[in-house]
Amino acid sequence: EVQVVQSGAEVRKPGESLKISCKSEGHSYSKYWIGWVRQMPGKGLEWMGIISSESESKYSPAFQGQVTISVDKSISTASLQWSNSLKASDSAKYYCTFGGGWLITVWGQGTLVTVSP
Amino acid sequence: EIVLTQSPGTLSVSPGEGATLSCRASQSVPRNYLAWFQQRPGQAPSLLIFDASSRATGIPDRFSGSGSGTDFTLTISRLEPEDFAVYYCQQYATSPNNFGQGTKLEIK
Q1: Residue of A80, B14, B29, B32 with fewest CB within 10 Å of its CB?
Q2: Of A51-55, B4-8, B69-73, where does mean pLDDT reach its minimum?
């Protein structure tokens, strides 16, 4: 089974940029679809978007234009990025997900993002 | 987009008993591409059921999924202490792949 390791917790100020990442251990990214899910404190799961094994990305309307999902297959690393746009409301735990298609079969441990003045 | 509504919000059940969780979609889920995830406190979610009724690898047969179209059910029999968690349904047929709001299964 794919083992997914996400980057560590981050603290940023509003308006700053951030890129968080996840890496699979011992598996090629060439056949996986990689997604991101947000969980705000004490709340449920929100599907943010996904990037296919062909590097085509799809976003939820709620997150379209707010974040960028990318993958660098040469280093088996996927990323979720905010560009000069972080808000306090982006404070949450972000999970990286893997699957052979749209179905999520493996979850990372989550990356906690705190945005505070 | 397909909106999923889970009920009840919280379910109180005694260990050893069974539980039935519901997930209703705002429109028919194509190919019954509906999954159930379990999230224990402080942990990442994990896949239980996919394609509405297929158990993921390693999931005990106490967990079963059923339903089609717009109405889906997760049934857990003989509840064990580790089963008390939050359960989410998700459709992965059409983008955005929305989750339901979750059902918290708590010890009575």
Answers
A1: B14
A2: A51-55
Nearest to B46 among A46, A58, A107 (CB): A107
Rg (CA), chain B: 13
Which of B8-33 are b and which e, b meaning 16 or more Cβ less than 10 Å from the residue's Cβ? eeebebeeeeebebbbbbeeebeebb
Beta bridge partners of B16: none
**A4, A85, A92: which is closest to A48 by C-alpha?**
A92
Asked if A65 and A4 count as a contact pair (C-beta separation under 8 A), the reply is no
Distance from A82 to chain B by nearest Cα, in Å? 20
With CA atoms as reference, the chain A residue closest to B56 would be A105
Q: Touching check for A41 and chain B: CB below 8 Å?
A: no
Residues B69 and B83: beta-carbon distance below 8 Å: no
pLDDT band at A25 (very low <50, low <70, confident <90, very high): confident
Across A59-76, average pLDDT: 93
| Residue of A58, A103, A110 with shortest CB distance to B50 | A103
A76: number of Cβ within 10 Å:
17
Residue B63 confidence (pLDDT)? 98
Nearest to A102 among B47, B92, B98 (CB): B92
At residue B17, the pLDDT reads 97
In this prediction, residue A73 carries a pLDDT of: 85
